[in-house]
Design goal:
The protein is an alpha/beta fold and about 260 residues long. It is about 40% helix and about 25% strand. It folds into two domains: about 150 residues, P-loop containing nucleotide triphosphate hydrolases (Rossmann fold), CATH 3.40.50; about 70 residues, no CATH class.
Length: about 260
């Protein structure tokens, strides 16, 4: 499977008294299952807009997004359903992404029922517990009836990942998915994401400004500045021999940190 963005741009209409905002300009990228693709840049560089375009949440102003050569904008209802199952999201704010009135059981179980992955309470619960175990809840039944405020930030992020992988996606678009977490919790979630890549073949489009994290987990890197992808290459190339002045500036400004590995 191949997810592609081809020469895609996004321009937002101007508010009164100002010009149009060119959030993404002529962006081209590729992502495949089993690959960890990172998109890095400062706040305001267009990373999150690009993520929303990949997820089909906002349309491109020009260019487009394709899955295996089929243009997202022209997909039929069944093709769009396949796209939404194949390309899932894990966002920055787990508290804001989970309904505070829904238990973990219900938040994931509704997805299982909606997509007809299982039917009947027992089968749905078993599927929910199965994906919870996959994301590190060894005693999955202990969190089934908890609400989002009753679990920690790291656990909420794991619930979000479980909700995404219950659809058996091929690629997850993760927009600043670990930026709000403490260092040790962040390390655990990153280990989980890498484990899912190895075990399930999931690919990632990982949106971040955190270069030490990129150096730890990425296979391929795109660098964004002012809505444009100014450089791309393997992690080794970007970190050891960058070409663009902006990439060099980012690397020079980045703290030299090691992600804590607590097992």
């Amino acid at each position: 499977m191949l997810l592609e963005m081809k020469h895609a741009s996004k321009t937002f209409r101007a508010s009164r008294g100002s010009g149009p905002v060119h959030a993404v300009k002529d962006a081209t990228l590729q992502a495949r299952p089993g690959e960890f693709v990172a998109i890095v840049g400062e706040s305001g560089s267009g990373k999150s807009t690009l993520a929303r375009m990949l997820l089909g949440l906002i349309p491109a102003s020009s260019g487009g997004i394709e899955l295996d050569g089929v243009l997202l904008a022209g997909m039929s209802r069944s093709e769009l359903r396949h796209y939404r199952r194949s390309v899932q999201a894990v966002l920055q704010d787990p508290a804001g992404s989970l309904n505070p009135r829904k238990t973990v059981r219900r938040a994931i179980g509704e997805i299982v029922r909606l997509h007809r992955i299982a039917s009947g309470r027992a089968a749905v619960d078993e599927k929910v517990m199965q994906v919870l175990r996959l994301v590190g809840f060894d005693q999955a039944e202990t969190v089934l009836d908890r609400y989002p405020h009753e679990v920690s930030g790291g656990q909420r992020q794991r619930v979000l990942i479980a909700r995404a992988i219950v659809l058996d996606p091929k690629i997850i678009v993760a927009d600043e998915a670990v930026s709000a977490l403490d260092a040790s919790v962040k390390a655990g979630v990153l280990r989980l994401m890498n484990d899912l890549k190895e075990r399930l073949g999931i690919g990632y489009v990982f949106i971040t400004h955190d270069l030490p994290v990129v150096k730890k987990v990425a296979d391929y890197v795109y660098v964004m500045k002012s809505g444009e992808i100014v450089e791309e290459g393997t992690k080794e190339k970007i970190f050891s021999d960058p070409d663009h002045p902006y990439t060099k500036t980012l690397l020079a400004a980045s703290p030299v940190l090691e992600v804590i590995d607590q097992r």
